[in-house]
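Re: your question from the hallway

Yes, I did run it. Sequences:
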Amino acid sequence: MLKIRQLSSFYGPIQALREVSLDVDSGEAVAVLGPNGAGKSTLLRTISGLVKPRSGSILYREHEIVGRSTHAIVKLGIVHVPEGRRIFTQMTVLENLMMGAFTRDNKKDIEEHLEFVYEFFPDLAEKRRQLGGELSGGQQQMLAIGRALMSEPSLLLLDEPSLGLSPIMVEQLGKTITAIRQDLGMSIMLVEQNAGLALELTGHVYVMQAGRVVLSGATDEVSIEEIRQAYLGGVSNS
Ligand SMILES: Nc1ncnc2c1ncn2[C@@H]1O[C@H](COP(=O)(O)OP(=O)(O)OP(=O)(O)O)[C@@H](O)[C@H]1O
Ligand SMILES: [Mg+2]
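Structure:
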């Protein structure tokens, strides 16, 4: 469903992605691992249209999405939950969720989605009138994901959702991600520093280092040792 080929992105003179190729099948969850600065967030930003690549192709359901606006990409069904749960702290939970429905204009449709998100995240239903900034870190992460679900994506891009969460919240997040994939049939691209969590939740793993994909394979066929090696030195040393 998502087919990335030879993708290169730059920030000014700095090359952050080096000919990255990667696939996500329909209903599949894929992990993207790698050390700080490897280019993981840049990859998600390039897919969602926030960063324009210098070269390469991103095919989504047969559409070339390179060059399209972020709005058009959301409309096609790709939603990005960025690093650091960027919720609106001075808006209520309900207002935050409604921001996720900006591509929709049918009121009844929006209401139904809201009900659905509240069922999925009962904490958010209970706190719907409270300000986003008054939620706990874990609840803010749920709100960021809930807001993304409001547009009913077919591909969800999650950038380090477990960052800063307690072990119990990480466990709950894992269940949520599994439910999003299994019950809603969405595809997921999961960027994580928590390799254990990522391997548990996904069927395919890519390891990035210095802008390149240095290791890729089915999650049950890649060993932790291989991943460690890829983190440290890339394929050339192995
Ligand atoms: N806005 C920016 N302007 C200039 N350089 C940037 C910008 N954002 C990222 N970079 C650089 O691009 C490279 C890739 O950064 P990116 O944020 O994609 O890494 P990452 O794998 O997500 O790292 P982390 O695990 O720390 O989040 C790094 O060298 C970084 O310094
Ligand atoms: Mg990042």
